[in-house]
Amino acid sequence: MGAYLSKPKTDIEIEIGGNANLTYCCASMQGWRLHQEDAHNTIPNFDEECSLFAVYDGHGGAEVAQYASQNFPNFLKKLPIWSEQEKDFKKAFEDAFIGFDDRLRQPEVMRALSEIAAENKRGQNVEDEEEEIDEEELDSEKPQLMQEARLPLREVLGKYGVDSKDFMNIVMNYANQQMRKKEGTVKAEDADAPGPSGSAAGSSTRPTKRAGSPPPSSMDSSAKRAKVDDESCSDAKVEANGSASAHQENEEPKNESADKEADEAEKEEEDEESEDEDEEAEDGEDKSENGPGPSRAPLLNVDRFLRDVSGDSDSDEDYDEETDEAEAEEFIGAPIPGGGEIPGDDSGATACVVAVYKDKLVIANAGDSRAVLCRKKEAVDLSLDHKPEDDIERRRIYAAGGTISGDGRVNGGLNLSRALGDHFYKKNISIPLKDQMISALPDVKIETLTEDDTFLVVACDGIWNSMSSQQVINFVKERLDNGGELRFICEEICRHCLAEDTEGDGTGCDNITFMIVKLNTPYIAPPEDEEYAEKTAVEEKTPVEAEEAAVEAEEAAVEQE
Predict the structure, then answer these.
(1) I want to staple 364 with a disulfide (CB 3.0 to 4.6 A). Which of 93, 98, 120, 181 is the partner?
(2) Is domain 4-126+345-519 annotated with CATH 3.60.40.10?
(3) Helix, strand, coil in percent for the chain, rounding step 5
(4) What is the pTM of this model?
């Protein structure tokens, strides 16, 4: 089931609390995801006359979100600007987000993130060992897998949110590199011997680098470059002056895309040769400068095979060879995420932080979590989702050297443009941290509260992908007006947004964190249960009172007998 569980984890964790001015409830549910990567803060007494609420939606691992939940509030409070009597909230939150993001790449913090990630993994391993595999569930997935096996590769990739062109570019590049490493340089033993197209007749495989041969120079590179014929590349001989003479009387026209691939492959091969110049060859033969160039037939066959598999052949109406090659070069040249190997480098978290200060709401947001206020019956968005395709985000990403794929992913990876962590995308040393392709700089909004403001909600995109801001406000308000308790409303909306299965586009399959902050409503602690109240009453009695109570209890027992 890809990145999903075979059945969702629907246990909901609830936090309830408040102070003299507000009451809150927060709910979190793992859902279909393999791991719970969300974290949050609910601090009703963060500072004098200030409460703090935050949602951190992790990706690539939970460690950045968890570390932010544990450390960001104190980091904010310790800033000198936060201690000022007249606070500059915009600058305070901007400094806090960027400063905290910079802290995430410090060695001691990266070690802490690694420890959190390791602890999470240990906990997951224990959980996996305790969970028994349901054979019936595994069998129930077989029809889906069989159905996907009959679909075109492009359609299957699209189902899981993967751009087919990006995927094929990576596979082609990797396959070509592996074939060069495995096959080495193919030299013709008899360049004039006729043979069938694509056959190995008259040629043999040799190691890439010969013992004792000099390292190739830039002039050697241009002198050895051979044009590749789509039908046969074993009959071409490279002369010392760099021109290629064909020994076929009826030669087919040259394939321009093949020429490009041959040139690029030759350059990559020579880079590998310069790195391996001191290696010994298997047969100890010297490579002749005027000998036949390496065969490119295997590389072209890989190219042709992969295009056939993907359904993206040269005969397709929508296939533009030049455009496809340009996109491939642009994509392959850009950095690609490292697969979650380095916590804080290949993992990150969005952050939506709300401070309730006197009669004001201060919202700082980086990413696609969201805060929304209910004013009368209307939803007032307190934050803006950050997506790579947005104009301001796109300009920054391009200026930092990044790319945006057709499905809105930065360098084929993240589908968001602002977050804490993700320092793999923040390695352009010529620009400041806030201007990197993935930025932690928050949008900061200050909203003055009115008597019409009744509550606000803060949630991760697991909610907002399923419901609009107004739909969420309507959902909560209707239940509050009917006397619903916050905890039950939070639980209900979590279940409402959970997908029945993972057959769709991923909506309803994410982690969910949702909190309601009810304004101008003093928090009233729930009554203690009767057993605990009686125990507390006994503990608070003086020794004399306790003795008298014991005598009374004994007399009552005698009377009953």
Answers:
(1) 93
(2) yes
(3) 40, 20, 40
(4) 0.62
